[in-house]
Amino acid sequence: MTSPAVDPAPEAAPQAAAEPGSRTPARTTPTVAPVRRITGAVWAALGIVYVVWGSTYLGIRIAVETMPPFLSAGVRFVTAGLLLAGIIAWRQGPAALRVDRRQLGSAVLVGLLLILGGNALVVLAETSIPSGLAALLISVVPAWVVILKAATGQRPSAGGLAGVLLGLVGLAVLTLPGISGEVKVGGVVLVVVATLLWSVGSFSSARLPMPPNPFTASAYEMVAGGLAGIALGLFRGEQHGLDLAEISTRSWVALGYLIVFGSLIAFTAYAWLLQAAPLSLVATYAYVNPVVAVALGALVLNETLSWPIVLGGAIVVGGVCLIVSTERRG
After folding, report:
1. What is the mean pLDDT of the chain?
2. What is d(CA 296, CA 100) in angstroms, rounded to the nearest whole number?
3. Residues 6+ apart with CB under 8 A from 185
4. How far apart are CA 5 and CA 113, in angstroms?
5. N or C of the chain: less Cβ packing under 10 Å?
């Protein structure tokens, strides 16, 4: 996975924001959030998130054609994390990378959940299932987030609950190719586990003492998760028999694309959108990305669009649309 889970929040909430590193609200006077103007730059950034993040599933599938899954995922995120840290130090000064022990520990934990659990497992799964199917399975993440919120005492809206039920029905339909033997059921199970870990990581990141700078937090998360991916790849023995000369040019290009466009450019665009555009608009990536991924998989890799994939995908996307449009209001 390449993007945060949708954790809908009100767009015009009372301003009771805590100071960085504090759990105590700085003030409790209700104010109205300013109206955010949708400019051409917003649409350009949204287009990047739509297309680039939707295309990363195709990039992963091409990369693992000749690259070991955990080692390639680990190299991708360590490289991207170090590049992001360098950019932060260059633009904001080295002080922007300073974090205390609790913040670093939280970033490492979230990085393990998101990068190692949520993303690297998807990379492994795409060695045996189509990229489009993986993207559709991943799009159920917002439903898990709503379930996690409900488990901690936050009552979901009626629309959010309906969206969760739709998402789970769609997930059941999407698993049919694995049950019928059309694809390896192990790959389907890996993606489902990845969605759960990604959801837990995304849910936890809003409740842990994270670094106040989201770019700094992301850099530490990517490096920590990437290093863990490399370690797991070495433990699995992916280095044995690995000949760099046998890795295809298109796999190298795909890895470079994932590092530069998937992990740096699209993430920066997403982080900027969170500050510049309405959340309801930004959150639409959750149901556009899988459509882009399925289309690219069919066009570039001739992936088969079986009826369970089409029907299950439509149900899941419908459920996510319902969650995003209702849960964000409360």
Report:
1. 82
2. 42
3. 175, 178, 179
4. 12
5. C
